[in-house]
Amino acid sequence: MRSTPPPDNSNVVIGQVLGVRGYAGFVRVRILTVLEDRFEEGKCVYIGDRQYWISEVENLTSNHGLLRFLGINTNEEAQILQGQWLTIPTGVGQNLDGDDYFHYQMVGLTVETEDGEVLGTIENIIETGSNDVYVVVGDTGEILLPAIGQVVKSIDLESKKMLVTLMNGMR
Q1: I need a labelling partner for 106 at 20 to 30 A (CA). Which of 65, 126, 148, 155 fits?
Q2: pLDDT of residue 38
Q3: Strand, helix or coil at 68?
Q4: CATH fold for domain 11-89
């Protein structure tokens, strides 16, 4: 199971530094965003409360990449970043299409069935590769809901509600 970043409503987690790579201060990063242009040279990210500018990018895929930050030139300097979360301020360059949402928008939503039964709130999201799974915790316990169209009928971020249809065996 993946470790969960600390909650912070002012920033959105977009990656995590996994370790040092090579000899010139490159770090291996796990990418946790669909914003492909977020990791281009010249872009700014935050690690803690400090800004870092990306100076070089290598071997970038949808899940991992090698980054070098301006001012980080040695393995010793890069080692300090290991395990740290890469963030951007909430709302910066975050334009998703259609029915896509960020995880931070989903956590805390109240989940109701089409019959009006309140199942609980989304407490966590599990990334499975094919689709996310929402961990809903309520009075009757924990329910795992796949983030698929047959289950999730609507999401209203303003009212903080998700409307779902339970498939057989989901209870």
Answers
A1: 65
A2: 81
A3: strand
A4: Elongation Factor Tu (Ef-tu); domain 3 (2.40.30)
Q: E strand or H helix at 105, and its extent?
A: helix 103-106
Overall size of the chain counted in residues: 171
What is the percentage of the chain residues whose pLDDT exceeds 70? 87
Query: Where do the domains of the chain lie?
Result: 11-89, 103-164
Which amino acid appears at position 78 of this protein? A
Residues 6+ apart with CB under 8 A from 26: 20, 56, 58, 66, 67, 68, 78
User: From the CB of residue 28, how many other CB atoms can be counted at a distance below 10 Å?
Assistant: 19
User: Between 11 and 77, where is the model more confident?
Assistant: 77
Provide the edge-to-edge strand list for the sheet that holds 161-164. 141-146, 132-138, 118-127, 110-113, 161-164, 152-156
In single-letter form, the type of residue at position 116 comes to G
Mean pLDDT for 66-80 is 93
Give the residue, 127 or 158, on which the prediction is more confident.
Answer: 158
Could you give the dihedral angle defined by the CA atoms of residues 157, 163, 166 and 167, in that order, rounded to the nearest 10 degrees?
Answer: -80
